[in-house]
Structures are given as structure tokens and as C-alpha cells.
Specification:
heterodimer, A: about 110 residues, mainly beta, seven-stranded mixed beta sheet, B: about 110 residues
């Protein structure tokens, strides 16, 4: 158990809809990272928050957004969903920022019908 | 590019053998490296890390070797067990940046 909690585990929705994925980091970790894992793209970094502030941005679509709350949990919002958004979405956390291991949750599997 | 899952490089070994999983990284400015293990239905699990000022680091049954000259990283697993069967990813962190770039992954299959 990594200590990172993600909910829900599975999400099934339709094209055009909007969903929110939730992540609680390990106790004491200030950084939260979001990744997308699909069969054809591997594990892709989306965005990072550190202590409530956006720290780094990767290959995140404009239809996607995230935030980190004062209690350090984070939410990833995906809107105007398309079939290609079907993937596993992982959250990871670390104590600080660079040169530190990131610890991953077990992900949310998003299926778009 | 190469697809993860459908075209994953696979290493098949017998239980008790030593396994070596290789990774070529891309950026000479990378100064921190991590190996992760991902089992089916789970998130990547941290195995071991190494900084660029080292060329070898050992953990429990695992050793990571770093060759900066040829930008190559390897993970050695001693006395491989069926429970080691999983996909293994290397990840690199470029100095000054907080994000990890993941490799494509290698599937390790251990038969009893």
C-alpha cells in the first residue's frame, strides 16, 4: 500500500460528459502529480501541484484541469469527454519536488462509451 | 512510436534465475532515476532509485546500475520469484525539473 488513495476506482460515462477524479496523497507529502496511462501512449505526465500551487505542466489537454486543496488532496477534472480519453489516470505524491521518489495510487479506470 | 502493452518487450525467466532489465534514457541532463514495478490492476510501485553521482545502488534482491557514458540503466533482480512478474518501468528526472519521464516498460514473466 503506497498510502496514496484514488477514487473512484472505475468510472464509466459517455462522450461529452464531465468527471472529477480525486486523490489523497500520502501523509506529509506536499506534491501531487497526475498521469495518464493508455496502451498506445504509455505513462504520460499531466500536471503537478505543490502545496496548493501549480508547479509543472505536461501533456494536459485544455479540456482537463486540476487543483490542490488546502488539505492537500487533489482533483482532476475532465470535461467534454471523447472516446480517446479512455485510460487509466494515476495520481502520485512526493514529499517535495524534484529528485524524489513519487508514490502512486492504484488509479482510476475511465471508460468512455 | 512503440506501444506499451501491445508491443511491450518481454523477458521470460525461470524461478530462481537472476533477471536483468535494461533501459536506455534519453537526456544527458537527467540526474535522478527510478525503477518502478507495475502489476496488473495496480499503480506503479517504487523499487529503487539512484542519483547521477552514483553508478551502483543495492536494495533487497535488487541492484540498479547506471552508465552515464552510454545513458544506460539496468535493474538486476536476484533469485527471481513468480511474484516478480510484472511490467518494469525506468523513469528519469532532469535536473531542475520536478517531472518524471517514463520509459516504455518491460514485461517480466517468471515461470515456476
Amino acid at each position: 500500500d503506497s498510502g496514496v488513495t484514488q477514487t473512484p476506482k472505475h468510472l464509466i460515462t459517455a462522450t461529452g460528459q464531465r468527471v472529477t477524479l480525486r486523490c489523497s496523497p500520502r501523509s506529509g507529502d506536499l506534491s501531487v502529480y497526475w498521469y495518464q496511462q493508455s496502451l498506445d501512449q504509455g505513462l504520460q505526465f499531466l500536471i503537478q501541484y505543490y502545496n496548493g500551487e501549480e508547479r509543472a505542466k505536461g501533456n494536459i489537454l485544455e479540456r482537463f484541469s486540476a487543483q490542490q486543496f488546502p488539505d492537500l488532496h487533489s482533483e482532476l477534472n475532465l470535461s467534454s469527454l471523447e472516446l480517446g480519453d479512455s485510460a487509466l489516470y494515476f495520481c502520485a505524491s512526493s514529499i517535495g519536488t524534484d529528485n524524489q521518489p513519487q508514490h502512486f495510487g492504484d488509479g482510476t479506470r475511465l471508460s468512455i462509451l | 512510436g512503440e506501444s506499451v502493452g501491445l508491443h511491450l518487450p518481454t523477458l521470460s525467466v525461470q524461478e530462481g534465475d537472476n533477471s536483468i532489465i535494461n533501459c536506455a534514457y534519453s537526456n544527458s541532463a537527467s540526474d535522478y532515476f527510478i525503477w518502478y514495478k507495475q502489476e496488473s490492476g495496480k499503480g506503479p510501485q517504487f523499487i529503487i532509485d539512484i542519483r547521477s553521482n552514483m553508478d551502483k545502488r543495492q536494495g533487497q534482491r535488487v541492484t540498479v546500475l547506471l552508465n552515464k557514458t552510454v545513458k544506460h540503466l539496468s535493474l538486476q533482480i536476484a533469485a527471481t520469484q513468480p511474484g516478480d512478474s510484472a511490467v518494469y518501468f525506468c523513469a528519469e528526472n532532469i535536473e531542475g525539473y520536478s517531472t518524471l519521464t517514463f520509459g516504455k516498460g518491460t514485461m517480466l514473466l517468471v515461470s515456476p
